[in-house]
User: Which sequence fits this backbone?
């Protein structure tokens, strides 16, 4: 969980170096958007399918499979020298990293009964948020001694070590893999490394360099004989693994996964690829959103008719529905603070990105503390009481933050407010998962966990776009009303107005989440029986 969360934010400091590494100049920042949105696409779109697989097969096997995918994605990213390959690597990383989340939560539900899983869920939430804090720190530490590619090689090494730990703790491999898929995969890995790394000693060799000669005028390293062979071997390896897993995949409802994953993908690409300074939706949004709506309608129709739908009937009922709403609200509030607190710090407190990031740390450190406290509190208090209290506290803090301006971050009270907002958001993490797991069937815990994570991520992606659009609308209105639109200080104050409106919107989202939390139950369920 920590590894997946850290990788979500690890590119924050390395993005410009990654752009340079694939031939993109700093003046073409918009072309780097797929590096971010690609990871989110892989992370979110396949979560329902992997959550369902965690219900149908060994969760140890799902963890190992996701770690393997994550390692492959990390290696592809590290070797990339062209944007399409880099984006493909990030998508693969997202698939592997995102899949670790529902499998882990399902394991918690499996190992602890509903009356005792609050604290473990709090630990999981705290570790995940701690990973979010450590991601940029890890990236900065690696960049201090090596280039950006070392970040992803380190990810690959950590993934291999974690896989070994999963095998050791789980008592060995869940089943011995067949020899042919393993052999083809290893050969594909070697061929892929040769194609992407293009070792100079081989490329410049008169006798050995022929496989590395591009076709025609092509410049891609994959548009070579060795590149084509590598791609064919990858396809063959995937086909062999899918063939072996076909009985489980068929039960998981692949058609439903394709429809629902396509819907989520359209949402992610619509909002995550948008330029927040100019638009709410991305360049293809007006085509993607209608297409996503069609896919959603088709999924609902398929869900009603399928014998074994992707999301089993009886999962999105009771408190689980309210858990999804609360999780979405948590995502909106969380992303508003993560994005706009450093922005406010740059406007009114410091010109240093590093100092602005440390302002955000006041919030980030409090979130895992709140997650631990929230999970521990579930031993005596109801899910709704803990979650509602936390989000009400966050909403109050965000209202205070919406009044901040010049000099506000210089006061000690700002640290208290940021810590309280972080604590409040952290308090809601374990109750949301606990309520969803408690009200879903035992054989659908992976699916329920995946849906909660999807709701939170959608809240972050869509919430950021909408709140930024609201803030920019107020910014432009404020600038239009200025008597002197060349006054630098007045323009700075107008930019602060934009941030204040984002915090207001986040406060509303947290308030809605607090009200919705009431439906999660104010007392412990076993005390009601």
Assistant:
């Amino acid at each position: 969980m920590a590894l997946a969360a850290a990788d979500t934010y690890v590119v924050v400091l390395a993005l410009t170096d990654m752009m340079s590494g694939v031939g993109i100049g700093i003046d073409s920042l918009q072309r780097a958007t797929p590096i971010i949105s690609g990871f989110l696409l892989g992370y979110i779109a396949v979560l329902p399918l992997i959550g369902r697989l965690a219900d149908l097969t060994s969760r140890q096997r799902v963890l190992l499979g996701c770690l393997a995918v994550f390692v492959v994605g990390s290696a592809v990213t590290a070797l990339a020298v062209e944007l399409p390959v880099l984006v493909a690597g990030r998508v693969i990383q997202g698939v592997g990293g995102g899949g670790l989340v529902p499998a882990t939560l399902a394991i918690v539900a499996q190992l602890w009964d509903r009356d005792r899983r609050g604290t473990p869920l709090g630990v999981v939430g705290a570790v995940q948020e701690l990973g979010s804090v450590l991601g940029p720190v890890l990236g900065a530490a690696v960049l201090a001694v090596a280039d950006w590619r070392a970040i992803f090689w380190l990810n690959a090494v950590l993934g291999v070590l974690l896989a070994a730990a999963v095998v050791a703790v789980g008592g060995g491999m869940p089943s011995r893999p067949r020899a042919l898929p393993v052999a083809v995969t290893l050969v594909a890995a070697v061929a892929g490394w040769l194609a992407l790394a293009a070792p100079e000693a081989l490329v410049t060799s008169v006798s050995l360099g022929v496989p590395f000669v591009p076709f025609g005028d092509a410049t891609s390293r994959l548009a070579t004989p060795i590149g084509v062979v590598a791609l064919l071997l990858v396809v063959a390896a995937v086909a062999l693994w899918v063939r072996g897993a076909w009985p489980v995949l068929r039960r998981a409802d692949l058609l439903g996964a394709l429809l629902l994953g396509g819907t989520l993908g359209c949402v992610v690409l619509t909002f995550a690829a948008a330029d927040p300074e100019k638009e709410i939706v991305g360049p293809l949004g007006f085509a993607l959103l209608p297409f996503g709506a069609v896919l959603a309608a088709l999924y609902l129709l398929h869900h009603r008719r399928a014998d074994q739908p992707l999301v089993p009937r009886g999962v999105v009922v009771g408190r689980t529905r309210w858990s999804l709403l609360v999780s979405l609200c948590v995502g909106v509030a969380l992303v508003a603070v993560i994005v706009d607190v450093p922005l406010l710090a740059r406007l009114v407190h410091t010109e240093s990105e590093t100092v602005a990031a440390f302002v955000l740390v006041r919030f980030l450190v409090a979130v895992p503390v709140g997650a631990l406290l929230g999970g521990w509190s579930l031993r005596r208090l109801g899910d709704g009481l803990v979650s509602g209290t936390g989000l009400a506290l966050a909403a109050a803090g965000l209202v205070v933050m919406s009044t901040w301006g010049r000099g506000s971050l210089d006061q000690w009270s700002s640290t208290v407010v940021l810590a309280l907002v972080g604590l409040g958001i952290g308090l809601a993490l374990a109750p949301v998962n606990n309520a969803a797991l408690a009200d879903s069937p035992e054989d659908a815990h992976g699916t329920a966990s995946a849906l909660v994570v999807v709701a939170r991520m959608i809240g972050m992606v869509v919430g950021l776009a909408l709140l930024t659009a609201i803030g920019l609308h107020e910014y432009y209105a404020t600038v239009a009303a200025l008597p002197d639109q060349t006054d630098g200080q007045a323009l700075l104050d107008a930019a602060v107005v934009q941030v204040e409106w984002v915090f207001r919107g986040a406060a509303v989202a947290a308030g809605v989440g607090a009200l919705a939390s009431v439906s999660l139950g104010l007392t412990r369920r076993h005390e009601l029986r």
Remarks:
- The mean pLDDT is 89.
- The radius of gyration is 24 Å.
- The longest helix spans residues 445-480.
